[in-house]
Amino acid sequence: MKKYYILAITLCAMFLLIACANPNSEVVGEYDTSKLGGDFAKSSNEAYAIGSNKDKMPVFKDTDKAFKQALIDYEEGFKAIQKEFNLKPVSKKNWEAYKTYGWQLSADNDEEIRRQGREITQFFDIYENSFKQLSVLHIKSINKFNS
């Protein structure tokens, strides 16, 4: 049993080290936002400033600012997604469900709410680019631990 605790602690420590040094979150260049969907991408709001990571994928220059601004700009859309799909309030730990369901809001919602839902999905398409490598490494760690 002690062996499993040591393994779990080691895996957690490795995950934290990787999270702190995630190269996908580092902006290394500019990105042509004219190719992107979503009003936020064409916005002059500095919170939504987009650059390019090492893989030439679009990433927010400051993911925290972008996340906070999206919560403000798409507040009604987040509420509608939460209600329709019975989700917990959006957070940095559960945003993936909002990405999945944002564009799926039903016609019971008015057009502005459905538009916000689509914007939320597009926002998280870019937001996730800062964290993709972590997800892959995390899955590999879990698979090794369960083997």
Automatic annotation (TrEMBL):
It comes from Tepidanaerobacter syntrophicus. Keywords: Signal. It comes from the Bacteria. Residues 1-21 form the signal peptide. The keyword Signal applies. This is Lipoprotein.
